[in-house]
Amino acid sequence: MTADIREFFEQYRTAFNRLDGEAVARLYAVPSGIASDKGYTHWATFELVRDNMVALCELYRSNGFSSAKFEEASFLAQG
To answer: Are 16 and 68 contacting, i.e. CB atoms less than 8 angstroms apart?
Structure first.
């Protein structure tokens, strides 16, 4: 994993560990989207990303979130 990609994941983890939804949102591209078992959600603006991440962090907070960490399992460089 390159240093810049590792730094991105470290910033993401740190923002989530602070439950700082705005900091998490600032790591997303705009527009952005996410696919889940419920379908695809598209966020066309930063405000939509931020509102989602703030709500997500509040959900984590209210459900006893403690902390997250990550370990590199594999890395496939893409050109």
So the answer is: yes
In whole angstroms, how far apart are CA 74 and each of 1, 9, 58, 70, 71? Answer: 8, 14, 31, 12, 9
pTM, 2 dp: 0.83
At 15-72, the pLDDT tens digits run: 999 999 999 999 999 999 999 999 999 999 999 999 999 999 999 999 999 999 988 8
Q: Is 40:34 a contact under the CB 8 Å cutoff?
A: yes
User: In the chain, what's the furthest Cα-to-Cα distance?
Assistant: 40
Q: And the tokens for 58?
A: 């509040």
